[in-house]
Amino acid sequence: MKKPINVSNQGATLDTSRRNFLKLSGIGIAVAGLTLVGCDDDNFEYNDNKIFDLGMGDVGVLNYAYALEQLEADFYTKVVNNFYAGISNAEKEVLTDLYHHEVIHRDFFKAAITGATTNVLPTLEFQYPNVNFNDRNSVLATAKALEDTGVAAYNAAGKYITNPAYLVLAGKIVSVEARHASAIRDLINPLTAAFSGDDVVNPTTGLDVAKEPKDVVMAAGGFIKTPFTWKERGIN
Amino acid sequence: MNILKLLDKLSDDSFFTKQTSRLDNLSDLSTFGKKAAIAALPLGLGSFMATSAKAETKTEPTLAMKSALTDALQLALTLEYLEDEYYRIGLNTANLIPASDKVVFQQISKHEAAHVTFLKSTLTSLGTAPVAKPTFDFTANGAFTPFTNYQQFLTLAQAFEDTGVRAYKGQAGNVMSNKDVLQAALQIHSVEARHASMVRRMRANKGWIELANGGNMPAATNPVYNGEDVTMQAGFNTATAFGAAAGSAAYDEILTGTEATAIASLFID
Predict the structure, then answer these.
(1) Domain made up of A53-233: CATH architecture
(2) CATH number for the domain including B116?
(3) What is the ipTM of this complex?
(4) pLDDT digits (tens, 9 = 90+) for B20-45
(5) B32, B100, B176, B194: which to substitute to probe chain A, counting the most A Cβ within 10 Å?
(6) Alpha helix segments (H runs only) across chain A
(7) How many domains is chain B partitioned into structurally?
(8) What predicted TM-score, i.e. pTM, was given to this entire model?
(9) Chain A contact for B96, CB < 8 A?
(10) Start-end of CATH 1.20.1260.10 domains in chain A
(11) Which residues of B touch A105 (CB under 8 A)?
């Protein structure tokens, strides 16, 4: 008889570049009967399929938004805790506001989702391998990418929301992300068309980018260390 | 349809309470667009979760939903007509917009014109004749001189863009029955927010709205910013972490069809 070992990912640090089970830290292992005499190793199945799935329906969309807000909050926290050399007061103010807003968004989603389901996305780990936090161009370019991605993500995710109350909440946030994106773009290329450039707003239709979850996770994936799936939306 | 008849119809929020849908969670639409209902959401939105399974059922849009959808688009079109015309006149007025700022307004104007075209063709494809462009009075009966005073031009531009963001947001529930229209509406809504942020910053404001302060805006534009100071979102206090200004700025609020119409009507002859 096989006894399953259930691995909880509470506070887990998962480095999936090497799926070496024994090097995963902080994992609580709940094992029934591990100390039972008479059971040898062959009798244990390892269930290491505990990668978090964002969930079904509206829960999935909320967890998705929560993931992106976690990323933005994490990024701006790093930015404001070590402003780049030569930062202007205007830039400091903008980046501080963005930090405030994204932390608020993140904490809002955590509270809202926690109240609605047990399937709450855990705290993710992030990495910024190609970002130089001491370089203005690097920081602003990354901020721009994150904000534009946020806008595109919300724009495409709206149609997957079934509850109108959630749709309004998402709507209240996405326009703020767009305000952010516009401001960052203007900091990079002041008083040009960049704030609402042809690279994001289709010049023929006037429509902003909308990116499917699969494409967003692919684009943002470089920043996200902790793996997760969203099977309903084809992210495995 | 005569624009004023449409605006009257939209002013009657009870119009949107006619529900023939069997999807229970859509009963929320009867109070949708009324800020009080949204503010009353319990923390965690848990009470709304139970119906999500029912919502999976595919249902043909009912007549009421279809009407709410096209009326929402007609409102959006009206606001886009307004912005489109406003920027055209502004760009064509000699010595109004400084050379340094022209590129920004050319880009904004390009988008508003595109939105007009897009919304007209969307309505047509839904089998509804788009409303005709109204006659606008951008002086609001003599209150403003936006085409002889650049500061006023900027002021009204900010008001129009911030209004557009809130108005589209307020119609989201009315267009969600058609996924293509909803997505397009979101894609226009975020562009208006980009515009708003830019114009606000050109007026030495932040790109976002803190409390209910438009930022050096005349009292006549108070309706554009009323209600923007809320710091409760679905039972979550957004002011706890960094104060009310940050908490309120992190979220843009809706305008109901009635409220958006009232603002637009100030500029319609």
Answers:
(1) Up-down Bundle (1.20)
(2) 1.20.1260.10
(3) 0.83
(4) 333 333 333 333 333 333 333 334 44
(5) B194
(6) 57-80, 89-116, 136-157, 164-188, 213-220
(7) 1
(8) 0.82
(9) no
(10) 53-233
(11) 250
